[in-house]
Amino acid sequence: MGSVLNPQTLVRDSDADLIDRLRTGDEAAFAGLIDAYSAPLLRLAVAFVQSPAVAEEVVQETWMAVVTGIGRFEGRSSVKTWLFKILTNIAKTRAQRERRTIPFSAFDVDSGDEPAVDPERFLPASHPQWPNHWAAAPQPWSMGPEGTALDRETLAVLRRALEDLPRAQQLVVALRDVHGWPAVDVCAALDLSEANQRVLLHRGRSRLRTVLERYFSDPEPEEASCA
Amino acid sequence: MTDDTMTDLACKELVEIITDYLEGTLPERDRARFDEHILTCPPCREYVQEMRTTLRLTGRLTVESISPASRDELLQAFRRMKA
Asked: Can you say how many angstroms the Cα of residue B75 is from the centroid of all Cα atoms in its chain?
């Protein structure tokens, strides 16, 4: 346990230095890498293969490819991007083998219009005084203090909402807001333009807010008992 | 658009540029319109607050990683490569 690196420190280390340490068999460096990236890799793998068990195998295969392929890493991309590329290839092969036809123009933004808020909640553009202003204004949320049952329930609702997002939105929101990656890393890992990354982030976050709003405005549990 | 004075931002527009605002990618002029708007519009202030709360709660979701057994297996494989 004493050899485990703080992932934050590791991420700040220059990639060249990290690669050198991996090549010379520095186990702590490898452990740090696993600890820093297994969770986001798993997140991406699930997007391809759906089954959590298969996703874990894909991540495992990715790390094995790193163990055997570190000598071939040319340093033309960041380690993070390299890892995501390996995983993407393995996951795609795996998805094909299982005949999942996931169309992989992967993380494209579909061009359809997706308003952040139901347009019905605004006054019409023709309104003489307040065009396009709120008709049904957002109401303050009453949240339970951290650690309470209510708070845990809120997080469970949010987790489900995140999982229900369209795949590309889910990945971007998860990497940005759950894993705390900067935009530039998400763009590189998912091969997205900055603008598309922002659109996906915006749509995903807006949907999550809507789910929470609905949850907070409806104090009745969904499956209310008849008693 | 022909007017040089600052045009008022509508609430319906604000909810679409909020991510650019929070990301710090909004052009200066739009940023000023945004700030101006939330000063005088309590519902939009509430909306911004809710969006920030959403981000904060999302940041508290736990992440799933690989199992400790898988991790050990990988470290062993790494050690074998080294040997």
From this structure: 36
